[in-house]
Write a structure and sequence with these properties.
The complex is a heterodimer of chains A (112) and B (171). Chain A is of the alpha/beta class and 112 residues long. Chain A has helices at 23-36, 56-69, 82-91, 104-111; strands spanning 3-8, 11-16, 20-21, 43-47, 53-54, 74-78, 98-100. Chain B has four helices and seven strands. The chains are: A alpha/beta (112), B alpha+beta (171).
């Protein structure tokens, strides 16, 4: 899967090139995430503003990535549309991933 | 509003996407956006489970999906050829303090149970039948006229069949 990468301060911002993060793309998503953090990245922002649908397979890939980052790491979800926020809420994984409106909000939270 | 649609789906993840597109179109005028989003999520989870586990291994196995949609409720019936399973048996524990123990899979059935009001499973000879019902609160409903979808139609054929006429848009 195409995963655009950019730096934002100490954070790495990843933007999936798919509007649907479902079982059809989950394996490719997981591999792309693993590659993105293979350099030791610990602080990740997933920009999901372009994601219109995510199921448990897509969410499972994010959990897998969070586990790979392990201690001292963090994944923040930016720009989650209601569809994405819904599954985060239903699975209670909104307690694991911090949700913000935009990637830049992470810097504001860090400095405030 | 009353709509009944049957389709035969290959046990593949690409077919799940097509079925989801049909389902989304079928419930487009139903309830609040949040309800529709949850319904699509649960529908996709159920279809994905059938696509992954619902084949006996025989070539030509298909998953039968029936949608019965009224303004007051949505009923989804799925029939596949997978091994019998217990839809109530799978649990999913999320402990935000234990990152290493978070599940990366197995969240589908708990989501289905959380979203649908009724989840009934019936093992039949050589196949499984899962019946999911969701009551829609406070929906006035929009009458739709849907052309007949031939039994066994592929999702692509069903998509064409579901080109519906919204009777609220009379000239």
């Amino acid at each position: 899967m195409d995963l655009k990468t950019r730096k934002l301060g100490d954070w790495k911002v990843l933007t999936p090139g798919e509007a649907r993060l479902d079982a059809y793309v989950a394996e490719g998503f997981k591999k792309a995430l693993a590659e993105a953090i293979s350099d030791g990245t610990k602080c990740l922002i997933m920009d999901l503003s372009g994601v219109e649908f995510m199921d448990s397979s897509g969410l499972g890939a994010l959990v897998y990535c969070r586990q790979r980052i392990s201690e001292g790491g963090q994944i923040v979800i930016a720009g989650a549309q209601q569809e994405v926020a819904t599954i985060m809420r239903l699975t209670r994984l909104d307690k694991v991933f911090l949700l913000v409106d935009a990637p830049e909000d992470v810097l504001e939270k860090a400095t405030s | 509003m009353s709509l009944t649609l049957s389709m035969a789906m290959d046990p593949s993840l690409s077919s799940v996407r097509k079925a989801a597109s049909i389902f989304r179109e079928a419930i487009a005028d139903l309830g609040a956006a949040g309800v529709r989003q949850e319904l699509e999520l649960a529908f996709v989870e159920a279809c994905t489970n059938s696509a992954k586990h619902g084949s006996s291994g025989k070539a030509g196995d298909q998953i039968k999906v029936t949608l019965e949609i009224q303004s007051s409720q949505v009923k989804v019936t799925l029939e596949d050829h997978g091994r019998p399973f217990d839809p109530a048996g799978q649990t999913c524990v999320i402990d935000a303090q234990r990152i290493e123990a978070l599940p990366t899979g197995g969240m589908g059935l708990p989501l289905i149970r959380a979203i649908f009001d009724s989840v009934e499973y019936e093992p039949l000879p050589g196949r499984n039948r899962l019946v999911l019902v969701k009551r829609i609160p406070g929906n006035g409903g929009v009458a739709r006229k849907v052309p007949a979808c031939p039994p066994g139609a592929t999702p692509a054929e069903a998509v064409e069949a579901i080109e519906v006429m919204d009777t609220t848009r009379k000239p």
